[in-house]
Fold:
Amino acid sequence: MSDVSNHPVDEKLPTGKLAALGLQHVLVMYAGAVAVPLIVGRALKLSPQDVAYLISADLFCCGLVTLIQSLGATQWFGIRLPVMMGVTFASVAPMVAMANANPGAMGAQLIFGAIIGAGVISILIAPVVSRMLKFFPPVVTGTIIAVIGISLMRIGINWIFGNPVGPTAPSIVNPEHKQWLDAATAAASAPGSTLPAVPKDLALLPKMPNPKYADLTGVGIAGLVLVTIMLISKYAKGFVANISVLLGIVVGGIVAAAMGLMNFDKVGKAAWFDFVLPFQFGMPIFDSILILTMTLVMIVVMIESTGMFLALGEMTDKKVDQAALTRGLRTDGLGTLLGGIFNTFPYTSFSQNVGLVAVTGVKSRFVCVAGGLILLALGLLPKMAALIESLPTVVLGGAGLVMFGMVAATGIRILSSVDFKNNSYNAMIVAISIGIGMIPLIAPNFKQWMPHNLHPLIESGILLASISAVLLNLFFNGASGDTRDAVEAAKQVDSH
Structure:
């Protein structure tokens, strides 16, 4: 028999049922949770082992922060609702920009320093952010989420055709030219040589077409993943339909392995069990501009969480007052702080899991506690992380097209509730903000004459679109104290 307290949110279900429902929540969020460490790790040009470590750290912290959010920790942290926590896609674009500018361990230290700084600030400003929902009506949040999805689509497309760096770039350096340059460099540096030294950082431009780029075999596997996801979504029901992306990745991985495109050597070498340790990539480097950039991302994320928490409160018939809202947002900040310490990323409530609460009708927060424990366990299994890292990018590309496209679709769905007929200003807000958000995507070198310190702040289209949408909405519409529309919009978010 279940132990029922005064409210369904606090209902303690039998252990077996808790485990099954918790696993269900984990499977629904799993594909989205592992996507971010894969994106950022590869942007940093880390080794496969380091990328696998990022995945383990991410799953571990997902579990840890989920436990804090759903169980509560002291009077300061935890919304105490059925919430699963995961890495937000909103942080991907600025982190990739940081990684591209500073690849390797130093880039990781800069990213984690920015995340730690943003986490501390987010904890401190949580009470203020909880009162800012009026500045983020659907016309603003819908625009921001649409730009997030559009920005991420580039990553999914590059996964299909080949990453834009390294051996899968559209062009490669001619091996003969490289051989000549290496010989000239060796001759110039030889003792007694009269040849002038080769200029520092001299490099050859890749001009030879890469036969591996957009390989039809890889494109075919990505297409298979995409078709699998669509078929499952159309013909399956309930829980199976909810994990269509994960099942599509599994099918793609099996086919890739059967064709000899997956190498399991790293999986075999990985340990069965290992701890996730802090500062694995060295002590964090704190850069004020990067911290500011990540803080702006967190403000947007916390605003989304505010709407999500209020919507979840209505779904579960549990009133979310100002104190509870502040605790929940403060946990977003704490999760981000812990993420930076344990070499992972900013955290927020996973919207697809909020949708699962509505679908299943199970309101108990202890289901998410069980999900958090499962995620903790998965984070301590390096073989699982190594297996995920071994997946060819083409497999992830087919799934990424759906995952990132659904984020954009969610933004469009929120915008569908906006009054464009009687308020022409709303169309102006959306048009200008999306245009500004596209600048870094279309013209990545637009910042070349601007101060270098500003580059991390302005090379994220998501941040530019967010600032633009908020300011334009204030200019045209002012700030309404009614949060009803924002809560209704949050109920529509299921893929972000």
